[in-house]
Amino acid sequence: MTIWEISEKADYIAGRHHRLQEEWRSYCNALVQGVTLSKARLHHAIGCAPEQQLCFVLFEHFTVYITLTGGFNGHTIEYAIANKESDERRVIATAQLSSDGKVDGAFSVRDREKVLEHYLSKIAAVYDNLYAAMEADTPVNLTTLASHAHAPALA
Q: How far apart are CA 42 and CA 44, in angstroms?
């Protein structure tokens, strides 16, 4: 392989990688805007926004992490939850981000309302489990909360 062939491949790789990262940043921006501009009281506070993940603090106790996973050229958006004081995370849902800016092949990362609706559907079981615990007046731990999170309602 010549230097020019490698250069051409390197340009292609860099271009595709850059495009995916741009779509990820657009997704994060749309989600942050969706949460912060929503008139609904979601009890979310922005917790962090480093390059590869976004997180929200839920009810001042749980942290929801949204991360693009899968290594270089990874397309999986992973939603995980942790106690605010712990580093242990439990994955509660996943989604796919395409290079053309679609989430789960259904809508654009730039559609703030759809991004927020999708995110809330992914974490709905968390709200359901917390609500049930409040009604039953029982404590909730991370294991219990995350063990029910992969319910079909999140699909």
A: 5
User: Closest Cα partner for 99 from 17, 30, 35?
Assistant: 17
User: Would you place residue 148 in the very low, low, confident or very high pLDDT band (cuts 50, 70, 90)?
Assistant: low
If you compute the radius of gyration of the chain from its CA atoms, what whole number of angstroms results?
18
SS3 134: helix
Question: How large is the average pLDDT for residues 7-11?
Answer: 95
The residues, ordered by sequence, that sit 6+ positions from 136 with a Cβ below 8 Å of its Cβ are none
d(CA 13, CA 33): 30
pLDDT digits (tens, 9 = 90+) for 115-126: 999 999 999 999
